[in-house]
């Protein structure tokens, strides 16, 4: 597919799609694993406990500071650069500061994939760690982007026809509680039918097949939860539907 032409470039900022951001996360994970592998090989080759401890400290420091330092200095990690995206400060349009970059990394690490759920509701496709640090993730160079790499900002929801935000949040939470109950019930059902052993279900040792099953169920639950959040916020769920326009 050809790159986006100059005439087709949006006048407003182009916000990175979830798939583009996932690609960047995967690349950064590979980079971190390569650093770890190099540190382990060096430690084994040198056969020195003292040097091994130093290398271990260096690796931990590199792992903790990898994203904050690169985001502050260059607007993104290696994964961000290779995926043609960057982290942008809402207030200045430049790179975010180091303290906010650290906070952004901590929130993302703590919430994991759940941090991206808010991308389906926010007008500028912001994850929780973006909202917490007043930042967005945008295309770095639009001339090198494909049309499926980015979104334009969402149109604001019509306030006159929407239920209050409190009602929408309450309904969304009710649906999420219900789906979590189904998620737990499905896990119990997998154990009852022998698809997952009780030893694995209790949090002990799981086989690769069992891990794949449980990971698939968990990812499905996250996907359904994201859809419910998006539908609820836009007034599509029963209990907090938007009023029909005359």
Q: Any overview of this molecule?
A:
The structure is a single chain. With 246 residues, the chain is mostly helical. The chain folds into two domains: 6-151, no CATH class; 160-233, no CATH class. It contains eight helices and four strands. The two termini are 42 Å apart.
Count of helices? 8
What is the helix fraction of residues, given as a range?
55-70%
Rg result? 22 Å
Structural class: mainly alpha
> Taking all residues together, what is the mean pLDDT?
87
For the terminal residues, how far apart are their CA atoms?
42 Å
Uncertain stretches: 4-9
Spell out the helices and strands N to C.
Answer: EHHHEHHEEHHH
How many domains? The number is 2
**Percent of residues in beta strands:** 5-15%
Shape: flat
- In the sheet with the most strands, the strands line up as 1-4
Question: In summary, what is this structure?
Answer:
With 246 residues, this protein is mainly alpha-helical.
Chain-wise SSE layout:
Elements: E1 15-16, H1 18-46, H2 49-74, H3 78-82, E2 85-89, H4 98-111, H5 128-132, E3 135-139, E4 150-151, H6 165-192, H7 198-201, H8 208-233
Antiparallel strand pairs: 1-4, 2-3
Helix pairs in contact: 1-2, 2-4, 6-8
Characteristic key phrases:
246 residues; mainly alpha; 2 domains; two-stranded antiparallel ribbon; two-stranded antiparallel sheet; 4 strands; 56% helix; flat
């Amino acid at each position: 597919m050809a790159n986006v032409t100059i005439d087709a470039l949006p006048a407003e900022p182009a916000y990175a799609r979830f798939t583009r951001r996932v690609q960047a996360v995967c690349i950064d994970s590979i980079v971190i694993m390569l650093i770890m592998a190099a540190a382990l090989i060096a430690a084994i080759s040198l056969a020195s406990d003292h040097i091994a401890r130093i290398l271990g400290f260096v690796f931990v420091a590199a792992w903790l500071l990898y994203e904050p330092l690169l985001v502050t200095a260059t607007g993104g990690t290696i994964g961000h650069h290779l995926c043609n995206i960057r982290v942008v400060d809402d207030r200045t349009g430049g790179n975010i500061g180091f303290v906010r970059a650290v906070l952004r990394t901590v929130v993302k690490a703590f919430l994991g994939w759940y941090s991206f759920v808010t991308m389906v509701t926010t007008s500028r496709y912001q994850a929780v760690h973006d909202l917490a640090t007043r930042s967005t993730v945008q295309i770095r160079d639009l001339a090198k982007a494909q049309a499926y790499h980015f979104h334009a900002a969402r149109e604001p929801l019509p306030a006159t026809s929407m239920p209050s935000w409190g009602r929408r949040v309450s309904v969304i939470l009710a649906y999420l509680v219900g789906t979590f109950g189904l998620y737990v019930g499905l896990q119990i059902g997998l154990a009852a039918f022998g698809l997952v052993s009780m030893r694995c279900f209790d949090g002990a040792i799981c086989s690769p097949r069992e891990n794949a099953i449980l990971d698939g169920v968990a990812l499905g639950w996250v996907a359904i939860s994201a859809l419910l959040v998006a539908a609820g916020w836009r007034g599509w769920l029963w209990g907090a539907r938007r009023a029909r326009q005359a």
